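Study this one:
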Amino acid sequence: MLMYSLIGISLVLLGIAGLQFTYLFYMDRLYRERKKYLQLLERKCADLTERLAAAEIRLSEQDALLESVRGVEQEAWADVIEER
């Protein structure tokens, strides 16, 4: 009877060890997926930062153009519009 209980306990311990290995592999896979997702987010962030810098430069150019045009008299507006 003692032998059966020892076999049962060893099988339970084997099952627990198997469950722990399964959980370890699952956590490792999650870590790799999150790492890939973080790299993707970093690339998107870099792209958006570049686009924001380009938009700010374009906006400053447009502001400079508007400031230069404000000095033109009302009659010259038609000429400015035709040039564009």
